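Example is below:
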Amino acid sequence: MLGFATVAVKVLAGLVVGTLVGLTGLGGGMVLLPVLIYFLGVPPIVAVGSDAVINCVTKIGAGSVHWSRGNVDAALILSLVCGSIPGAMIGVALLNSLHATYGDGANVFLRAVIGALLLLIPIGYLINVRSSQSGEAPSKLSQGKFLPGATLIGLGAGLLVGMTSIGSGSVILLFLLVIYGLPPATMVGTDVVHAVLLSGVAAALQFKLGNVDLKLVFWVLLGSVPGGILGAFLANHVPSARLKPILCTLLMVVGARMLWGTLLHAN
């Protein structure tokens, strides 16, 4: 009975997270990771590896739809990938080195980093929303051209994804919103397809290092895949613009509590 309850909680967590991601468009890693660590008690290093696999699989369907509809800027993806793939490799190597050197201390470090990201990324998103509402327009993107700035963005996001699995969607999307003037469909489609590539590389590296719990991945995907479809359907009926600030606030609360608990534990 206990085993069934545990499985049910994992599927339900995937369903809730998938629905929120499909409804709001916010990064899956940013939403799912605190659920795995804080509510399901998964060790952070295993949560990071498993989350990378879940993110990759969950976004394949959405990425293929965006690609077929022409909502993808291939030149921008190439610019991002040139930085994000090496960044992910470096990030995973750093995480593995930390774990090999400090053992469980690496999990404490990850809790602190993830808690800080859960604070900073939603704050950045909310600030950008206010700037957009005030009429501040981003610079326009040069279509079809290689963008060195995007490569630097990809490098930073890749490092974060390799170490925390957060950033394949949320960080990239935030920078695309702030810096480049893209049509909404192209921005989201480009972000999703790039996230599949980046999460796929990170997931393969994490799996090779033994940081992936395949049973956990299976049960969460069982809920998150239909949840993403449900969220996409509900997006036509529920004002996601109102839900995003609420979700950001919840993430900041969880991040603050995770960070504070880690600091207390360290002392």
